[in-house]
Amino acid sequence: MPHHGNEFEHEAEEPVRFTDKRKIDPETGAVRGESAADSPQSGNAHEEVSPAGEAHDTDDALKQAEDILNNASTDGAESGSDEDANTREAELRTDLLRLQAEYVNYRKRVERDRDVARHDATRSTLSQLLPVLDDLDAARAAGDLTEGPFASIANKLDQIIANAGFERINEVGVAFDPTVHEALMQQPNDEVPADHVAMVLRSGYQFKERVVRAAQVVVSTGPAE
């Protein structure tokens, strides 16, 4: 029949029209063009995942967790059950405390790692100056740095490394400590007790209570008999 023929021709053109313009699927009756964010199911999933995702993007997990906790009472009121609301709020409060602890631990770990990296870089840089410092000590021992511009430069360099936390290990008369001293020899000494440093042959250095280089020393064996 002509009427059916026109309908057939109309259906032959439908795929393009349905895909681009129709809002209702003729077979399933579902609404076309509805985004995932508009559907109720997608909206619930978004509410559950969004706080964690936004906390990761903005590095503000605590604020996101607090927002969830503040919305707990509203969610419980909408559900119509005080018991469910209280249970939900308790669960969210527990999650908030856990998240807060994780966040604090994360910040402490980041700060600790940053300090370690900074100290390692400083120690590595100052360690490269050890030969220069040894030459300055030798020049002082020989009396070549008592005055003049080089003596001023040497004193400024000593002040710089001291301010950076680099400490010398060159004290005489202290008890021998194998963690900071390297004994090259032992000899009697009437002025220094046994097992004490009688002479420093080469200064040692430590940075932030960590030994960079042990001091080479002569250890006293006590008064000569």
UniProtKB/TrEMBL annotation:
Q: Which domain of life is it from?
A: Bacteria
**Where does this one sit in the cell?**
Cytoplasm
Q: Keywords in UniProt for this one?
A: Chaperone, Cytoplasm, Stress response
Q: Which GO terms describe its cellular component?
A: cytoplasm
The region annotated as signal peptide is none
Which parts of this chain are annotated as the region Disordered? 1-88
Composition bias (Basic and acidic residues) maps to 1-26, 45-66
Q: Which Gene3D superfamilies match?
A: 3.90.20.20, Head domain of nucleotide exchange factor GrpE
Describe its partners and assembly state.
Homodimer.
Family according to the record: Belongs to the GrpE family.
Q: Give the protein's recorded name.
A: Protein GrpE
The gene it comes from is: grpE
